[in-house]
Amino acid sequence: MIFLNSEVEKALVSFLDANNLDVKTKSKYLEFYYKFANVHGELNQKTLDEFLKYNNNSPSRAMLRHLINSIGRWDFPQGILGEVVKLDIPRRTGRKEKKDPLHLDFKELEYLIEHMTGDSIIEERNRLAILTQWWGALRVSEVLGIGIKELETEHYNKDEEFQRIKLRSESTKFGKEGYCYIPTDVYYKITEYLKRRCRINSFMQKLDLGENIWGFNKSAYDKLVRKKTKAILGRAYNTHSLRHGRGTDLIKKGVPIEKVKEILRHKDISSTQIYVHLSDSDIKESLK
């Protein structure tokens, strides 16, 4: 058994130094080494394969080769050297592995909204559209299909924790009307936003014609989400990552998968199973 301890780290650093690598390259290899060591703690074929499953890129593969070579050239017991010789870094086949879909978790959502500052109508619109999609676990077509009638303000109850929004049949994936539920405070802010924006006659006319309450199309909305998440979170998330985030959040909270299926409006429960996997991945990630 080869534990990734300080002695192994010392061997790797010495090996990298002997190869006269530039500082940036050396730092990148050590970054992947620390990630490998912190997650797996030891080097064997199983941990090597598991690491490459999620880090199958050139720097991580090069790091593993350097690690194996450094152990082989260091003053380790013969038994350890014998184990190292047996290790194999599988060749890349060129086939891209299927990655888990991105999901924006609740903490990221809070941080994102907190830092989307500004008091203008448009800035408020941007925040509310993202909050509505996340909380409602909406597909992009569904969030952009919300018109003034879909709010059903006649059913608003300030004492309820959540308010429902109707989903048009033409905006849903399977052509059936449905409902989503968002927090009452978000719903109330939408009504206040609309009061401000409806002072603009041209916007009011568009609402009367059945256009969505946000005033932008799919391309503009997707661009907004990518731009804001990249600037604030350091990573560009797409619009569907909001829906994935809510689905994963529900699973992590212990909501039965059958109920999550209903909330996400999946036709088959096999589609909902991905969120169980995403939740497991999130737990593993927190252990790193």
From TrEMBL:
Organism: marine sediment metagenome
CDD domains hit by this protein: DNA_BRE_C (cd00397)
Name recorded for this polypeptide: Tyr recombinase domain-containing protein
Chain ranges of the Tyr recombinase domain: 99-288
Iron-sulfur listed as a keyword: no
Keywords: DNA recombination, DNA-binding
GO process terms (BP): DNA integration; DNA recombination
Stored InterPro entries: DNA_brk_join_enz, Integrase-like_cat_sf, Integrase_catalytic, Tyrosine_recombinase_XerCD
Molecular function terms, GO-annotated: DNA binding
Statement: the UniProt record of this protein carries the keyword Transmembrane: no
PROSITE patterns hit by this protein: TYR_RECOMBINASE
